[in-house]
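Re: duplicated header lines in exported C-alpha cells

Our pipeline writes sequence and C-alpha cells for each protein into one text file. With two proteins the header for the second block appears twice in some exports. Here is an export where it did not happen, for reference. First protein block:
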Amino acid sequence: MKQPAKLVLADGRVFEGEAIGTGKFTAGEVVFTTGMTGYQEVLSDPSYAGQIVVMTAPQMGNTGVNDEDDETAKPFVAGFVVHELSSIVSNWRASRSLDAYLKGHGLAGISGVDTRALTRHIRNTGAQTGVIGTEDVATLLDRARSAPSMEGLNLADGVSTQKVYEWTEGSGVWAPATKSERPRHIVAIDYGVKQNILRSLVDTGSKVTVVPSNTSADDVLALQPDGVFLSNGPGDPAAVTHALPTIRTLIQKKPVFGICLGHQLLGLAVGAKTFKLKFGHRGLNQPVKDLTTGKIEITTQNHGFAVDVPSTEGKAVTTHIHLNDGTCQGIEHPETGAFSVQYHPEAAAGPHDSRYLFKRFVERIDARR
C-alpha cells in the first residue's frame, strides 16, 4: 500500500501525492527540468546536489534504469517529483526499476503530483526551497522555510573527488575515440563532473587526469597538462572563492575550457559577475546561438545561475547566447583564449549538436603545443 506524501514549498503551496523511493523526509531547492527522457542521468548528475527535481514529462520510469548511464557513482539529488511512476519496465538495457534505483540509493520522492501546476507555479514565483514528507503541513512548511537558500552555498567541494585519478573510459560504440600519435594530457578540475564529459575528453584521443576542486594551480601544473578543463557542478559559483586565483593562474599558462559551473567560475575569475536566474534552464531542448559561426544548436542545460553580460565588458567576449532569454551561454577571454559554455556539449541525455566544442578545445591545445 502506497503512503500518502506531500511536497510543501516555502511560500505555503502544497502538492499532494504518494511517497516513492525511501519515503523519508527530504529538503532542497525545488526546480524543474523539461526533458522527456534522461531521468537516470538527471538523478545521477552532481549538478543537482541540494535540489528537488520536478520532471515535467507526465510519466517516468517506463524504460527502467541500467548499469551504464549513471553520471556519477553516487547520486546527490535531494529529491524527485513525478506525475506518474511507471509500473512497467520495458527496455533491453534495463537492470531494475526507477523506484528500485531510488530505494537503492536512499533517495526520496513523490508521485501523483500535478507537475503541470507545479511547474507553472515555479515559473511564476521562481525556484524556492521545499520539502517532501509525510508529516502534517505545518511541520513541513516550517522545515521548508528553515532550509538554506541556494544562494551563497558552495556545494562543489562536497561532490568533488577527494583524490587524483586517471579516467580512461571513452564513449565506446556511441562515439569511437580519435587516435592520436601524440596524446594530449588534459587535467580536469572536478567541481561535480559528469562522467560523460570525461568520456568525451577521452574520445578526443587525450589522456585525462581528474583532480579535486581545491587543487592549487601549482599542483595542477605539476602534472604537466597540455590543457585544463573546468567541470560542471552544483551551488552558487560566487561561493567557490578558492577556485578563482587558481583559474587566473592557469589561464595564463595553459589552454582552458569550462562547462556550466566551470564557465561561471571562469567568468568570475576574469572579473565578471554572476547572478541567480528566476527558475534556471534545465532540459534537453534549449536553443543556443554560437556567435562565432552564426549556427544554432539545441542543447542540454542544467543551471540556476548565469554570467552577467554587462559585467563582462572589457573582460571577456560573449560567444554564445540563449535564444529564449538572451542570457550568456559562452565566453572567451581575449588575452589567453580560455573559453567556456554554460550548457552541456557532452549531453547525456540530449542532442549532440555541441560536441564540436571538445574538438575546438583540443585544436587549441595542439596549436599551443
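Second protein block, exported in the same file:
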Amino acid sequence: MLDTYKYKGLRKALVAHLQERGISHQEILDAFLDVPRHGFVDSALADQAYEDVALPIPEQQTISQPYTVAFQTLLLQPKPRMKILEIGTGSGYQTAILCALGCRVFTVEYIAKLHRTAKARLEDLGYEPKMLCGDGSKGWPKYQPYEGILVTAAGPSVPLALQEQLEIGGRLVMPVGSEKSQHMVVVTRKSRSEYERETLQKFRFVPLRGKYGFEEPES
C-alpha cells in the first residue's frame, strides 16, 4: 500500500480536525496517524480519504467517516491486548485502527467480497486480526467472552447473542434504531444477568445483516 508525504500530511490535518471535534485520547489519535485510510477506499477516492466524510465501498456499503470511527473507538475504551469482537469488517479500516491500538481483534463480515478484500489489505499492512465471513449478528461464540464488542452497522435492537458474549465488565458499542436513523448505544455487562445501557447521540449507519439485523432494506 503506497504511502506518501502528501497522505501523511493529510492524516496530520485529519487528526487536528478530530481534536477540534473533541477527540483527545492520544493513543486513538496516534492510531489515526498510523493507519493509511486512503488504502481502504477505491483509488479514485484516495484524495478524499482524509475528509471527515463517509465514502462508498463495494456492495452498497460505506467506510464510516473518521469522526464516527474515532467516537465509537473512544466509547469502547480500548487498551493494549484487549480482546475485541468487531461486527462488520467492511473495508477493514476500523479493524486496522483497533489493531494499531494493540488490541486482539476478532472481526466478522457478512459479505464475502468485502471479507476477502479487507483480509488482503490488513495483511498488506502487517495486521493479524482473526477474521470470519459469516452472520455477525450472532457474534463469534468460538472465542467468547470478549472485553469489548464493536458493531459497525445499525440494528433494530442489541442482539442478546452479542450481549451474552461479553465478559462481566465488558462494553458493547452499537448504533440502534431504524435503517434511516439510529442512536449510539453502549451496553455494559454488570453481572451474568444484569446489563447497563446508555443511549447517546444520533448517527446513520448501513444496516446490520443477518438473523438479528435487518434482512432486507426498507423501501
